[in-house]
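User: Here's a chain of 224 residues. Predict its fold as tokens.
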Amino acid sequence: MLWAVSFKTVFIDQAVVAYAERFSTGPDEVQRDLIETTQALGDPAVMQIGAVQGAFMTVLARILQPRLAVEVGTFTGYSALAVARELGPDARLVCCDLSEEWTAIARRFWERAGVADRIDLRIGPALDTLRALPFDPPVDLAFIDAAKAEYVDYYEELVPRLAERGVILADNVLWDGHVADPARDDAPTRALRDFSAHVAADPRVMVALLPVGDGLSMITRAPA
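Assistant: Prediction complete.
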């Protein structure tokens, strides 16, 4: 069974998507139930990351062992769950979102998974939350998956707070492949093109744009 919202990866053959899921660590019972609960929401379910991307984020969190992680855009909590399950008892994940309704689902599943005590959910504009974050401790892992028009602003708040070997992940950077289509000129597509160009031109960082999910930019500090 495809546990990803597979139509998000339209630029890769769906047989390849299924193959990637088959040979990636799959969702556990809590994650499967969260996927099904989110899909029952209808159209908004497209905002949930896929299972392979969730597995990637869990593996990365296991490698990095972040003390402080930040998520910009939480929705029903799948990506937060993927990271929080690898956090130590003294680590925290700060989640930024505007929706009490969708994050209420997230809270329920975080409790069920036993990770709610590691997550600090802050309801309100994400930029306000990011600007209020101290510079110490630094951010070890960040995930950007919210308003596309504000990606550059989120990024600019996170980079100065990023640990030396910290990582920023930015979601949807391939946007169903639309970013590579010169005929597409809608606002989200332009915003994501601008974001990728901004990051690629930034001498402070290194970036790899990965065809995972709907496109995932993996960003870290450049060598001094």
